[in-house]
Design a protein that fits this description.
heterodimer; A: 166 residues; mainly beta; eight-stranded antiparallel β-barrel; 8% helix; disordered N terminus; B: 291 residues; alpha/beta; TIM Barrel; two-stranded antiparallel ribbon; 8 helices; 35% helix; globular
Chain lengths: 166, 291
């Protein structure tokens, strides 16, 4: 996979300046549902991505991500910065858990003559604030490991998306 | 295609997705982490009598909020004292007996239901696996025996309280130290697990984390020699799939502990289906389970 990422010849070198895209976001870690849907608009090296969670009905938890992807390498490497609002249904209300996201991602070869793009990445999330549902709000404190170790998490994701120029 | 046929396919697909991704909330027992589970995280109040008092008093929908309480029982090696403490750094000298007597009084004076589950009250004694400054300061055999004797003294107080109050009780002896658990079940006073009796006893293996300390590196095999554990306790973010399979092969119940009830820990609970949840945010957890 690293060779594919490094080579990058088939990762969309002939791509247009702008496109919209929609696809599926997979992950295996604890933290969000394993399958979510995403969509966005890319212009040049910047890509705005919104990820929604259609599996919220299974357990009342909804993770919404807003991400800015900056492609810094012709080989397909990009850095991502984003925010995740996790909405957790509990009896009598919803608690929100607000997290910042930082990721490094790389493009995989395109499929079906460029119709489908793929991206894999390593993401670091940091929970900053829990609030809502009449419970005490809780921020993150870095004074000891106990205070933040559960708030820092890592995950691997894989995105497949359909892209169209406009 | 008729609508009801399509709806049926959608429902089956939804059910498959829910089952295969383990997204349903489990039916688990909520235990109060470090005797401190009254609201926002405040680790400074862990293992204090004030937090224990407030934690015991919590109600939800007219019932006790909790299914049980964790009491940290630390053996202070240098002074040979049995303390209600997380470690030597946070110990304020409160004897573990003071915490047991307070919970025993709660059992004696509280009318039914004594717990959210309405059946038993659960007390988990975490018998700390170190006796000094470092996690590597393990027990000598003599220290392990004295620590075990202290735990049995606490059990007697709790059992008396439960008996006087007419409650059923489950006491879990949990430790990351196989030596302490082995000494416990070898003591002449060890009454056996008393399964089905008003006071049931269970043994829990504490696999605390992946730190490179002696207790963090104990293997599961060390706990199967003469101990006969019933439960394994771990953190959902620090356990491997292989370890989970090993625990399941031994038919152990799971306890999942956490510092903070994050979505990651909640997903771990959904997927690993513990019998016990050890949390400092008991009210949030109860409302999450009751959603």
């Amino acid at each position: 996979m690293l060779a594919l990422l490094y080579g990058g010849s088939a990762t969309g070198a002939d791509r247009p300046d702008r496109d919209w895209h929609a696809g599926i976001n997979f992950r295996t870690d604890f933290g969000t549902h394993p399958i979510r849907v995403d969509g966005g608009v890319r212009s040049g090296s910047l890509d705005g991505i919104l990820i929604l969670d259609p599996m919220f009905w299974t357990d009342g938890q909804h993770d919404i991500d807003l991400i800015l992807d900056w492609r810094f390498s012709p080989a397909g490497w990009s850095a991502q910065l984003g925010w995740r609002a996790t909405v957790i249904g509990i009896a009598g209300g919803h608690q929100w858990q607000e997290k910042s996201l930082l990721a490094i991602a790389g493009r995989l070869p395109v499929l079906w003559e460029g119709l489908i793009r793929q991206q894999v990445g390593l993401e670091c999330s940091l929970l900053w604030l829990k609030h809502g549902a009449g419970l005490p709000s809780q921020g993150t404190d870095f004074s000891s490991g106990r205070e933040f170790v559960d708030h820092l998490n890592f995950a691997i994701f894989w995105r497949m998306e359909l892209a169209r120029a406009f | 295609m008729p609508f009801d046929h399509a709806a049926g396919r959608c429902a089956r697909a939804a059910l498959w997705l829910a089952v295969t991704t383990g997204c349903e909330r489990p039916d688990a027992l909520v235990l109060c982490h470090n005797s401190n589970c009254t609201g926002a995280l405040d680790f400074e109040r862990d293992d204090t009598m004030a937090a224990l008092e407030e934690s015991l008093a919590q109600k939800y929908r007219g019932r006790p909020l909790l299914d049980g309480m964790e009491i940290d029982v630390f053996w202070h090696g240098r002074t040979s004292r049995c303390l209600f403490a997380h470690d030597i750094q946070s110990a304020d000298g409160t004897p573990a007996m003071a915490a047991a007597e307070r919970v025993g009084r709660h059992l004696r004076e509280t009318p039914p239901p004594i717990s959210w589950n309405g059946d038993r009250y659960h007390v988990k004694m975490e018998l700390k696996g170190h006796v000094g400054e470092s996690l590597d300061d393990g027990h000598t055999r003599e220290q392990a025996a004295m620590h075990a004797d202290c735990a049995l003294d606490l059990l007697a107080v709790l059992a008396d309280g439960a008996s006087a109050g007419g409650h059923r009780l489950e006491v879990i002896f949990d430790s990351p130290s196989p030596r302490v658990l082995r000494e416990l079940v070898r003591r002449p006073r060890w009454p056996g697990k008393q399964e089905g009796e008003p006071v049931e006893l269970r043994i829990s293996v504490d696999m605390p984390d992946s730190t490179r300390s002696s207790i963090g590196n104990e293997s599961l095999a060390a706990f199967t020699d003469g101990i006969d554990p019933d439960i394994v306790e771990f953190h959902a973010g620090a356990v491997t799939d292989g370890a989970v399979q090993a625990y399941r092969s031994l038919d152990l119940d799971f306890t999942i502990w956490m510092f903070s009830a994050t979505s990651e820990n909640l997903d771990g609970i959904e997927q690993l289906r513990p019998r016990y949840i050890l949390t400092s945010e008991a009210r949030f957890m109860r409302r999450w389970l009751e959603y």
